[in-house]
Amino acid sequence: MFKPSKWAVVLVALVTVAMLLPACGPKAPKVEDEWGVVVIKPGEKVRLGAAMALSGDLAVLGEDIKYGIDLILEDIPDIKGFPVEIVYEDDMCTGEGGTAVGNKFAADPTILAVVGHM
Questions:
Q1: What CATH number should be reported for the domain holding residue 75?
Q2: Is residue 31 scored above 70 in pLDDT?
Q3: Three-class SS of residue 49?
Q4: Which residues pair with 90 in a beta bridge?
Q5: Is 85 domain-assigned?
């Protein structure tokens, strides 16, 4: 009959404990923040706002920025497995336009972050 050595029994016990410890760990902490927390569920898109001049005298610059963002999305279409969607808005490169677009993005809880404003 096979009789395991004392060290083999200790090793098996340590490996078993090491495998079970992560299951006994604490749950992910509940994050509370007065500004709110963004939770993106698996399969949902990461929505980013992009503000730039898409009309007026500086539209050519805004179109270049938009084209650059589109090129990046062709190479990197997701962030850690979450598909990325860009919401483009025309700020007309004016204070009033920038304020309007900024307020629109701020009022949309699905927008995770904003890039742009020339």
A1: 3.40.50.2300
A2: yes
A3: strand
A4: 52
A5: yes
Residue at 41 is within a domain: no
3-state helix, strand, coil in the chain (%, to 5): 40, 20, 40
CA atoms within 13 A on the CB side of 31: 7
Please report, for residues 26, 50, 52, 59, 111, the alpha-carbon distance to residue 92 in angstroms, rounded to integers and kept in the order given: 50, 12, 7, 8, 20
* Number of domain units in the chain: 1
Beta strand 111-116 with 78-79 is unpaired
Maximum distance among all Cα pairs of the chain, rounded to whole angstroms: 90
Q: With a cut of 60, say whether residue 64 has pLDDT above it.
A: yes
pLDDT at position 42 = 84
Write the pLDDT tens digit of every residue in 46-61. Answer: 999 999 999 999 999 9
Its pTM stands at: 0.67
Is 36 part of a structural domain of the chain? no
